[in-house]
Amino acid sequence: MAVSFPGESQEYRAARNRLLEQEIELRRATESVATARRRLPPGGVVPQDYGFQGKGADGAIADVRFSELFAPGR
């Protein structure tokens, strides 16, 4: 489906079509990388339960353990 806009030049349309092809290639490459990432086997065990500080729901600084970041309901 060809799209054109009133008053656009042939030069603009050709450049826009080239850009569209590049965008399609980029989207395909991005999805290919995402698929490869999802297929990775599980990584190693984290050696300790690291602690972080972040803002809680009320805006106060809260300590959070690494294991809590991926707990059910998070």
Describe the secondary structure blueprint for this structure.
Blueprint: H1 10-38, E1 51-55, E2 61-65, H2 66-69
Antiparallel strand pairs: 1-2
Describe the structure.
It contains two helices and two strands. The chain has a domain at 1-43. The radius of gyration is 23 Å and the shape is elongated. It has helices at 10-38, 66-69; strands spanning 51-55, 61-65. It is of the alpha+beta class. The protein has a two-stranded antiparallel ribbon.
Q: Roughly how much helix do the residues carry, as a percent range?
A: 40-55%
Order of strands in the sheet with the most strands?
1-2
- Number of DSSP strand runs: 2
Distance between the termini: 43 Å
Helices and strands, in N-to-C order?
HEEH
What does the largest sheet look like?
2 strands, antiparallel
Question: What radius of gyration results from the CA coordinates?
Answer: 23 Å
Q: Shape from CA axes?
A: elongated
Average of the residue pLDDT scores:
91
Low-pLDDT segments, ≥5 res: none
Beta-strand portion reads 5-15%
Q: How many separate helices?
A: 2
Helix-strand makeup class: alpha+beta
Please summarize what this structure is.
By secondary structure, this protein is an alpha+beta fold. It has 2 helices and 2 strands.
Any descriptors?
2 helices; elongated
